[in-house]
Amino acid sequence: MIRIKFPSMKRSLVAILRGIKPDETAAIVDGLIEAGFTAIEIPLNSPDPFRSIEIAARRAPKDVLIGAGTVLTTDDADRLNDVGGRLMVSPNVDAQVIAQATSHGMVTMPGVFTPTEALAACAAGASALKFFPANVLGPSGINAIRAVLPKDVAVGAVGGVSNDDFAAYAKAGIRTFGLGSSLYKAGMEPGEVKLHGVAAIRAYDALEENGL
Prior knowledge:
Layout: E1 13-16, H1 22-35, E2 39-43, H2 49-59, E3 65-69, H3 74-82, E4 87-90, H4 95-103, E5 107-112, H5 115-123, E6 128-131, H6 134-146, E7 154-158, H7 166-171, E8 176-179, H8 190-209
Parallel strand pairs: 1-2, 1-8, 2-3, 3-4, 4-5, 5-6, 6-7, 7-8
Helix pairs in contact: 1-2, 1-8, 3-4
């Protein structure tokens, strides 16, 4: 089993741009990168997602992960690789999809909710685990499951998580977050998205300032 390590980032935040259109991608992605984001996910249930991912991947510096969410098939993983994506996020644990993405050198982050799913994802070689919906499990629920997981697997909270929740999760040892609707909703102007991004970065930086 091969596992691509989840990269060490100054701020372990993934921007989730569900619903973004190709003609909006450049300005919004540029703004988020300028704000300080180094991981951006474009879900495949967005309009023409692979085109948007290709645009984002071409614009992003090498240290910025660009990829897809809602990846459900090995064909999706292949297409993601073809357009330059390096991050594969899925809502479920499919060992074949994880293996295919890993074969392309991608960072993989499947969605899990239970210890069984989390351990299956680890066994399949996932780089990180996306606990979703995190707001249902909460920091204590995710932390309880972490006790049985390999120590080298990154754990992220996604779903119903906003800047206001960072401290509660950080107190439980969770410092990787996926930000969706609290950061971006379809149709938002690039300037508004960037403002949300700047606020998220400030909230994340405040964790260290507050000793979390």
